[in-house]
Amino acid sequence: MGKGPRVPGMDSKTDQTGQNTASGVVRARRWSVRRLVLAAGALIVLAIAAGFGLFLVQLSSEERRPQTNADGIVVLTGGSSRVADAMELLASGYGKRLLISGVYPANRSNDIGRSLPERQAMFKCCVDLDHSAVNTRSNATETKRWVSERGFRSLIVVTSNYHMPRAIVEMSHSMPDVTLIPFAVIGDKWRDEPWWSNAATFRLLLTEYVKYLVAEVRARADWVDIALALIFDDKPRQGEAVKRASAAVVR
After folding, report:
1. Angle at 124 between CA 89 and CA 143, to 5 degrees
2. Which of 40, 108, 170, 216 has its CA 20 to 30 A from that of 225?
3. Residue 179: helix, strand or coil by DSSP?
4. What confidence tens digit (pLDDT) does each residue in 141-186 have?
């Protein structure tokens, strides 16, 4: 059968309709993608805000003496009165020895002791200095070495309240078989005014929260590596990792 007569302009109208339909589909897809991106962004913001709130809940608002003694005490340098508080714990018999971790390389016991003249004798007998650590992660590494050399099984960790969550994450990751007892030092600024009323304090807490998240992710990633080693019997990778996993389970 022959084709019917072509109506002038019909093909162009059909093409235009198809183009409009295709454009509408593209716009709808783009809008769907944008909504998904916006929804994902909102969820991320909410998750970060909720996590920040939980982080703040962990922070001590007052100093509390440890409920039990420990083999040793470690204080992480960087905040005012940390060393003085750690020395007071040592003098009160909460630990046998004290490690001051992250000391400036040029400083010696006498230099630090001059700021605490009443503790001079204790500096000579019961205090060790770590000059190698430059951050919280290396604090944990050097503390692990010190704990292993001394044969300690429990440790009081002294640092500022805002720094304590990250310090415990790093210490637990490095020494899963050692019992950690936190002693949070409360700074004067924290006592004098609410953190939300001071922009510098807010920035400090927000920065510390981000560092804390990074430490948590790194520690959990290591546990994933340990789990894979156990599941697939990856013997070259097991070694120390499996030992740490076993020690953590026992703990």
Report:
1. 60
2. 40
3. strand
4. 999 999 999 999 999 999 999 999 999 999 999 999 999 999 999 9
- The string over 146-167, giving b where at least 16 C-beta atoms fall within 10 Å of a residue's C-beta and e elsewhere, is bbeeeebeebbbbbbbbbbbbb
Number of H helices, E strands in the chain: 9, 5
What is the rounded CA–CA span in Å between residue 114 and residue 127? 14
CATH of domain 72-231: 3.40.50
Task: Compute the distance between CA of residue 116 and CA of residue 89 in angstroms, rounded to an integer.
Answer: 14
Q: Is residue 112 within 8 Å of 83, Cβ to Cβ?
A: yes
Give bridge partners of residue 136 from the DSSP assignment. none
24 is written with which tokens?
């509408």
Tokens of 120: 């001079």
Task: Give the model confidence (pLDDT) of 191-208 as tens digits.
Answer: 767 777 788 888 999 999
pTM of the model: 0.72
Strand 72-76 and strand 179-185: the pairing is unpaired
Q: In the block, which residue shows the tokens 């990792």?
A: 241
Task: Look at residues 162, 168, 165, 166 and name the one whose alpha carbon lies nearest to residue 74.
Answer: 168
